[in-house]
């Protein structure tokens, strides 16, 4: 049979209903065979065969009946739809194999080659039942668990309480996404059977993180572009006329969002871009970089309410994910392809990336942002944006039962669970009992054959850290108090591990116990040879609390001084000599040590020279020499920055002058820097 059959003759002028009416008139005696066939334009011989039963019932179509009865085909189509809804969709090969197994098990005679249907059967079946081939989108099991009716209902209740009296211009959502330097969504026209390629510079696997946001009225926020690198260079930043007003930039080691970067963006960009009216509601996901005590305190002070989305639900409740990022990335692919055609073999620089992405954000469609808030049910408020088919059947049933109860104590919300095979089996078997019975004698149904291929094994239980199971207002008193307790416990644990755990202990039997520092200072014998640095101690110093930072820093300095006196016999000065000089006034050209936050709450020190003193101090950083001990050099490109007075911990004395010409660029200090608790770069 040809693939696309075109009928060359006209079909019969009568239908199945006409045959049924004519048959009833003849059998009731109201009309003769000749009169009935003439009235309905039915051949007399055919009508006679239908009356005597020598010919089967006329098919609803022009041709012969299908191999598999229409009722069974409909049941197969329903099963395929249910399997796809639950994430167990079948491919074309699997679907044809299922049909082949069905006709083999039930001993149905077919013209199929090797008992497997071909493309003609597949195309006709897909067209008749309104089906199509789709590319499955990978959804993590945690995201499937996150769509729980109890959690979603609680989130929308919190959302209603927070945004009930807030206009759309004061409801914001921000989220970060990554833009790949190799476009993958655009298809090109080419010859059939031939591959298509594009010349690029490098593998194209590099991604750059961009933070974008808007409010429910469609107004854009200045973006934050996060590059991969140890420092941020002005050569990466486009000119003001090519940039979105207020755009901020950052650089991290891996190019990801970090807590300090997000805090700086919140203070220096977000708060300056929102209206003066309060309150302002900020909706974001619960990524660890978005949750810190310092950020919550600054948000409360600024009158910003931060609402955290339920875990693993951003693909359904985050406006930026729902309607904004998709069109932006499609436009990004188009622009990067145009750029590659005019820059053959060139690598996309960070400056060009920023120019292109800011141009796309400036020209983005505001309707997409409005659609995102509408699809997320934020504005207009709609708690029913998630269809009931998205929920687990058992969970949704318990949710309905709880809402129908006079009190909610009888039915408690359960922990979210992934769509189970048992629930899918229950739904498929339920559809079997309600389906129209087949006219053929079928031993094995499609439902039974499908359930043979689906099995679920119990997974081993693992203990995990308990997190919030739903949405919460991060700026509430309860959350802030919890974060404060957590930070206090972390500081106590770090001090106990880093100080007491290193052998600094006191006599338990002493009636007059003294502090570990005083007891250690009474010992004058050195445990290490001269000029051999002892094991470095690590101290936790939170920069968000000035009082605690100073106390921890003073304690660290005392221990550093004690350890240095024990382990060193040379004439180098100790850092305890600088304690009195720390609070003395600074002057231009003084050399200082600046301590900044590093990775994993570790402190990093830098030697710098004071250049200018105003409200903030302008310094020029030095780099530690890799060849000469306790020597520093100025980099070829001056590294100039402004720092607050609180970041300067030591005021170094003038450097030692060197006599040789080769060492004239080296700046040496008469200090032993090996005893610092932090790494000096």
Automatic annotation (TrEMBL):
One of its GO terms (cellular component) is nucleus. It comes from the Eukaryota. Gene3D superfamilies: Homeodomain-like, Ribonuclease H-like superfamily/Ribonuclease H. Residues 205-339 form the DDE-1 domain. Residues 497-552 are annotated as: Disordered. GO terms for molecular function: DNA binding. Residues 543-552 have a biased composition (Acidic residues). Pfam families: DDE_1. This is DDE-1 domain-containing protein.
